[in-house]
Amino acid sequence: MSRICELTGKGRQVGNNVSHANNKTKRTFLPNLQNVTLISEALEKSIKLRVSTHGLRSVEHVGGLDNWLTKTSEEKLSPRAAKLKRELAKKAKAAA
């Protein structure tokens, strides 16, 4: 299981540990990923995703999972989230 947020695409970053003697060794910075169940009101179901805490705050700020998926481009989303976005668009098109 890769350490990438399914909504924002945030992944690991690489940097250095720097000692007092200024020795540098490689290290990784991992995102704070959480397993979360988000509710889609339009699809009327709950979805389990692996999301960073930053991504979760962003979803809540925008107004929910449905709004987040409609405003985000498919390149940033995971394949599962992109599929949800297509289902959401299909449902909205059928309702209109």
Automatic annotation (TrEMBL):
The keyword Chaperone does not apply. It holds the Pfam family Ribosomal_L28. Keywords: Ribonucleoprotein, Ribosomal protein. One of its GO terms (molecular function) is structural constituent of ribosome. One of its GO terms (biological process) is translation. Belongs to the bacterial ribosomal protein bL28 family. This is Large ribosomal subunit protein bL28. It comes from Sphingomonas cremea.
